[in-house]
């Protein structure tokens, strides 16, 4: 067991140190979860505009002038092109504008928060158009890729992410710390097996019981399993390299950095730019988006997120292998020293050295 670094201090000093460090840790944890949420606003949000006429041009100008920097506009010649872009996760929605009406195409499955924001923008755009045309322009909203009817606001999907991240950490602790599989290959195989089984369990609960994850069953299960394996293998790798402190390092990165920066309840483009980008490079953010693509978008837009999870998995596996190699090297070194100490030659040399010392 590692020694307590505070054990050499008197009790009053231990209490003083804990009184400073513990509240600081709690405050930083709260800050990590609340600060990104408090800075939510549209930042270069990919949105389409359908048409090449004057009305479409005015709509694009209106979006850029009323909210500078909020939207990254993509122009599409037809309704079919815009729908295809939404289904392939290239844009969150699209505005089809004419002198009589505004049709807003959205995908609440990509982000209910973004869908609500863009629906409000469509209503405001219709109001501006009505002030210059007679009769008043009509606003129509069509959800191209809706969320599950059992989870219309996506709240269940978002709520499941924190237990998933914690579950990945727990799997690592169970396999690497409590059981301590050896050699390294056996530990890696154990992590893969329990991640797949846990992914299947989550899949049954979320899809069959709650109904929050419709769509491709195999793809959904594979996404859950890969996310759990990426988290658990990294935490187990840190434990192999650093011991129990490595579990703390891995858990902090996943739970208190990756989880709040993932933007699951909003979208990466609604968070501060650096935070949103960092969140998508960590397993919670990449896993959430991979799961959305598998459950709602037939796998479209999944490749980059699968690559991120794959990289974290490889890093975790490499750390496990290196950690076990170091332990084996130390064990072999101690074993060699013990054998040398027990050998007759070593005893003879020791006796000769001792005799020489006495004579001199």
Automatic annotation (TrEMBL):
Name its species.
Kribbella pratensis
Q: Where are the transmembrane segments?
A: 12-35, 102-126, 157-181, 188-206, 218-236, 241-262, 302-321
Sorted alphabetically, the keyword list is: Membrane, Transmembrane, Transmembrane helix
Q: Which residues form a coiled coil?
A: none
Keyword Membrane, does the record have it?
A: yes
What protein does this entry describe? ABC transporter permease
Source organism phylogeny: Bacteria, Bacillati, Actinomycetota, Actinomycetes, Propionibacteriales
Q: Does the record's keyword annotation contain Transmembrane?
A: yes
